[in-house]
Amino acid sequence: MPFIAFFRNTNKKGGNEPLPDPVKVIRDALVHALVYYYPLAGRLKEGDSRKLMVDCTGEFGVLFIEADADITLEHVGDAIQPPCPYLEHFLCDVPGSSGEQTGLGGFIVATRVNHTMTDEALGIFYFLNTIGEIARGANEPSYRPVRKREILNAREPPRVTCAHHEYDTTAGTEATMDTHAHLIDKSFFFGFQEVDCIRKHLPSHLQSSSTFEGRPHYSTAGHFIVADSSRVPFREFDFGWGKPVYAGVAKAAPNTSFCERFKKSTGEDGILIQMSLPLQAMDRFQKELAKFTGERPMHVTGDKKHTIIKSML
User: Fold this and answer.
1) Catalytic: 115?
2) Phi-psi region of 23 (alpha: psi -120 to 50; beta: other; left: phi over 0)
3) I want to staple 138 with a disulfide (CB 3.0 to 4.6 A). Which of 19, 80, 133, 156 is the partner?
4) 313 found inside a domain
5) CA of 33: how far to CAs of 24, 116, 139, 144, in Å?
6) How far is CA 70 from CA 80, 201, 294, 308, in A?
């Protein structure tokens, strides 16, 4: 799962004191953070019955890549939101887990962690937050990882208490989305005005809802996951240069959408929803959304070079 954070390379101490090198500071902090999060430096392997395990022999480590860019945050502008521009340059697609730090007239911290090792929200947050705390001078993290896997063990004997229909298979049906199709990545911003417009289309007994939360119902023919990370304080990361311009999941995944807090350049705060859909589905989604918000739908193009622009909202 790719995660990315953009920072301005500012001198918080003021004066003429030279700026420390973010690469060295973050790399040294990463070394100390992995003492507490040592499984992230291991390698996944299959055991008996294909059970996944983490090999922590001390022979491996985390891949750390430094790179320089000849553009600044100002060049990227308001495009600092998922799908993140130039992501293929900021984050190397290396088999297994990887991390990259890139200077950009500010700097970027980008990581790629296998979802089997940790979730893309709280797990990544606490790991990167630990790096930030150590980078700012802490001797140990304020929150230590908890590895009590025994609490997830099945009862003896096992007892099934819930039917998980999301794993059912039905003959003669197909998945809801062809993951091999050409997918379009876009983000949609929902501020007060957009939420208010959508609320008016709800039944009267639901119009007092502001976040439209609810437990999703999985169909037997496939499913679409909406992951809500809006309560994870990604915007509070600080490696010693202040809070990020943007921090969060770098892009949506097929069949999975991410919701997170986002502040526009105008200062308006709201929810940013990332989506990855086939071309025709994205075009249809924008047209349906426009009926609720009253906005004119943006033209959808199949050219990936044009998918990094802001959405219609």
Assistant:
1) yes
2) alpha
3) 133
4) no
5) 14, 19, 10, 10
6) 16, 47, 40, 19
CA 84 – CA 308 distance, rounded (Å): 7
Q: Check which CATH number belongs to the domain holding 135 and give it.
A: 3.30.559.10
How many domains would you assign to the chain? 2
**What is the SS3 assignment for 290?**
helix
Q: Tell me, yes or no, whether 168 lies in a domain.
A: no
pTM of the full predicted structure?
0.72
Query: Is 130 in the same domain as 204?
Result: no
* DSSP-assigned letter for residue 139: S
Same domain membership, residue 226 and residue 146 = no
The per-residue pLDDT for range 284-295, each reduced to its tens digit, is: 888 888 888 776
Residues 264 and 136 grouped into a single domain:
no
Let me know if 70 is a catalytic residue: no
| Set 75, 89, 115, 201: catalytic member | 115
pLDDT in tens, 175-187: 455 555 678 888 7
Angle at the Cα of 121 from the Cα atoms of 223 and 82, rounded to 5 degrees: 75
Q: Answer yes or no: do 207 and 243 share one domain.
A: yes
Residues 144 and 186 in one domain: no
Angle at alpha carbon of residue 118, lines to 101 and 307, rounded to 5°: 55
Active-site residue among 32, 223, 228, 238?
A: 238
pLDDT at residue 17 in the model: 65
Residue 296 DSSP one-character state: P
Tell me the residue range of the domain where 187 lies. Answer: 180-306
Helix/strand/coil for 265? coil
Q: What is the mean pLDDT of residues 89-110?
A: 61
